[in-house]
TrEMBL record:
InterPro entries for this protein: Amidohydro-rel (IPR006680), Metal_Hydrolase (IPR032466), Metallo-dep_Lactonases (IPR052350)
Organism: Neptuniibacter pectenicola
Protein name: Amidohydrolase family protein
Xref: SUPFAM superfamilies: Metallo-dependent hydrolases (SSF51556)
Superkingdom, taxonomy of origin: Bacteria
PANTHER family in alphabetical order: AMIDOHYDROLASE (PTHR43569), AMIDOHYDROLASE-RELATED DOMAIN-CONTAINING PROTEIN (PTHR43569:SF2)
Amidohydrolase-related domain location: 5-280
Family stated for the protein in its record: Belongs to the metallo-dependent hydrolases superfamily.
Length: 281
């Protein structure tokens, strides 16, 4: 049976957390967002019988951005599977060191995500943000970078961060927020792939096209493997946002059963790389 560590999921408890991004009045304004405006627990992470979920990485889900440690406390009370946490902390705030100190009290913490999106260039050029990323690097924590690599200024800004902080561990989310191959995206990928501490996750297809197909994503995944090398590429679900397109089991069935990987490639893309990068025992 093939083991899977899913390196990008979000669990939701609407009674305990805020989740402003799930409210209709807030971005992102996905037409199918109502489908995921409900509770999602570890019990919903069901794979087909040919695969077994060996663990997951929980990425901050906007539980409480004023007190982000509340999300980690909730996770550590409720989750039974092996898991790691990537928490929210405001990189632009002078309170970041204090937030980080509270978060590091939780054993599941491995990193921080502060969504950059279209503001990536300005945020990453901010000297206070650079200081906070240096603090992450010094503490051996990773930065989850969500930004559009098809925008040259965003890719340039992250490249400059990696040049100045070569020991900072960075994981790029959702293929660099790309829906298809493009010249700018490929140029951005090639620049970031030169940094050995940078890895990338393939996921988030449904955010651009809820009818995504393997034929559309195969060229992107192949390009990433060619640039980053197999050990720095991971396949992920983005559950429950992925539910806007298909079930959790279907996402992994497409990855495991319908894409033409060798057994070694498959094991690395869905298990071994995530286990190493996110420091599972």
């Amino acid at each position: 049976m093939l083991r899977v560590i899913d390196p990008h999921i979000h669990l939701i408890d609407l009674q305990q957390g805020r989740y402003d991004w799930l409210k209709e009045v807030h971005a992102p304004h996905w037409p199918d967002k109502a489908k995921i405006r409900r509770d999602f627990s570890e019990a919903d992470l069901v794979l087909e019988t040919s695969a077994a979920l060996a663990g997951f990485v929980h990425i901050e889900a906007g539980f409480d951005n004023e007190s982000p440690w509340r999300e980690l406390a909730w996770l550590e009370r409720h989750c039974q599977l092996p898991f790691k946490s990537v928490a929210f902390a405001d990189l632009t705030s002078t309170d970041f060191p204090a937030q980080l100190a509270r978060l590091t009290a939780f054993s599941s913490l491995v990193g921080i995500r502060y969504i950059l999106d279209e503001n990536a260039g300005a945020i990453l050029a901010n000297e206070l943000v650079r200081q906070h990323l240096r603090l992450l690097s010094e503490q051996g924590l990773m930065f989850e970078a969500q930004l559009p690599l098809a925008v040259p200024s965003a890719a340039d800004a992250l490249n400059q961060v990696l040049l100045s902080l070569p020991r900072l561990k960075v994981v790029v989310n959702h293929c660099g927020s790309a829906a298809q191959l493009s010249e700018h995206w490929m140029n951005g990928i090639m620049r970031l792939a030169q940094h050995p501490e940078c890895a990338i996750k393939c996921s988030g297809w449904e955010m651009f096209d809820t009818a995504w197909s393997l034929d559309e994503i195969k060229p992107m995944v192949s390009f990433l493997i060619g640039q980053f090398g197999l050990p720095r590429v991971m396949l992920a679900s983005n559950f429950p946002v992925s539910e806007m397109a298909c079930s959790y089991a279907e996402v992994w069935s497409r990855y495991l059963n319908e894409m033409d990987w060798s057994p070694r490639e498959k094991e690395m893309l869905v298990y071994k790389n995530a286990k190493r990068i996110y420091q599972f025992s």
